[in-house]
Amino acid sequence: MNELSLDQALALHGISKTYNAGRPNEVQVLRDVSVTLDRGEVVALVAPSGAGKSTLLHIAGLLDMPDTGDVQVDGMNMTRLGDDARTRARRDQIGFIYQFHHLLPEFTALENIVLPQLANGVGAAQARDRARLLLDRVGVAPRADHRPAALSGGEQQRVAFCRALANAPGLLLADEPTGNLDPTTSDQVFGALMDLVRETGLSALIATHNLELARRMDRVLRLEDGQVVG
Question: How far apart are CA 107 and CA 129, in angstroms?
């Protein structure tokens, strides 16, 4: 077993993942991947589509199980936890951002950020205050009472950022968070994300195919042929 480190927000050791194992269409997506993320560090994960970066993020975020290897979050080995404990860790310690915002269409921007807090036992007034603070930080506070359909693509994704941080996680995982936006909007929205991450002291692993965005992070890792290099 790998030694636990309290200095690391995330540590993946010897992660392998194969789909359809033992069948003719078997695909090995990840092969003995190891990644560490220090506290407060923002790391880019660069890979072409289909290279396995989403699988790696799902394993890091406790949404999927590796075939081999250990996943450590905040100094705790999560690999052998039961389902309930993994769910609690995912809810309390990890924030997720996807390429598509996945906001609940029947709720306002504010309500989309309040709901995960209520589910985590936060009082309504406190949840609304935090939601407004987060929306203000990304410049969407004036749109707080609008539903997603009334927001631009960039505004929707900024609200998704806020929702991911609603419960104050220590680790943020993002999968192509600006991938469906035009270049100008992508640059602006990514800047808002980076500002938010830096202000809150988050550790973040952000998958992107955009090398310009990747260079704005602390470090760049590349996923090639199921292994991480760089």
Answer: 17
- CA–CA separation, 25 and 31 (whole Å): 17
Count CA within 13 A, CB hemisphere, residue 205.
Answer: 26
pLDDT for 177-197, tens place per residue? 887 778 888 888 888 888 888
Q: Does 2 reside within a domain?
A: no
Quick one: which of 61, 44, 86 has its CA closest to 213?
Answer: 44
3-state helix/strand/coil string of 66-128: CCEEEEEECCEECCCCCHHHHHHHHHHHEEEECCCCCCCCCCCHHHHHHHHHHHCCCCHHHHH
125 lies in some domain: yes
Q: DSSP secondary structure string, 180-222? A: TS-HHHHHHHHHHHHHHHHHHT-EEEEEES-HHHHTTSSEEEE
17-70 pLDDT tens trace: 998 776 777 788 899 999 999 988 999 999 877 778 889 999 999 988 999 999
Evaluate whether residue 39 is within a structural domain: yes
Q: Which residues contact 47 (CB under 8 A, 6 or more apart)?
A: 53, 207, 209, 222, 223, 224
Tell me the residue range of the domain where 152 lies: 8-229
Angle made by CA atoms 125, 127, 128, in degrees to the nearest 5: 65
CATH of the domain at 46: 3.40.50.300
Number of domains in the chain: 1
The radius of gyration of the chain's CA atoms, rounded to the nearest angstrom, is 18
Block residue for tokens 């860790």: 89
- Is 51 part of a structural domain of the chain? yes
